[in-house]
Amino acid sequence: MPEKLYAGLTYEQIVRKYSQAVANICIIRLQNYADAEDCFQNTFVKLFTNSPQFTGENHLKAWLIRVAINECVSCVRKNKLFIPLKNVNREETYFTDDTNDVLWALLKTPQKYREVLYLHYCEQCTVKDIAEILKINENTVKTRLKRGREKLKSIYGGDERE
User: Fold this and answer.
1) Domain enclosing residue 51, as ranges
2) What's the pTM value of the predicted model, to 2 decimals?
């Protein structure tokens, strides 16, 4: 029996290609590793069990991001209590590579800016894609990007000459 393909990729290829993006979204949204791991796993379980049809890889990526966000929302509703990462020692986290500083800065921004900044800069989503994924207006995405950049600049200290 041939392996099921999703937008031309096998399930294993999808997990390898998009696992970091889904994990980051869950961590940024929940700020709790245990719940983020559950939502991460649930996202890929839904892909496997629902077997949705995709028009292309962009559609697949947007679907995974939307499902991950929905899983996080459900988790917060279900648990109501979660431990934020703001008191966690930076050296003891699971963040790796060059995104470490960016993710930590994003975690210090308000939720509404955090998501659009992450999707735009880390996942290279367009304003239109972000609006569709988050189900908000494109102008709202642009405003949140602008204000989020200002928040990040204040976190990093910014350049006084700009």
Assistant:
1) 1-93
2) 0.69
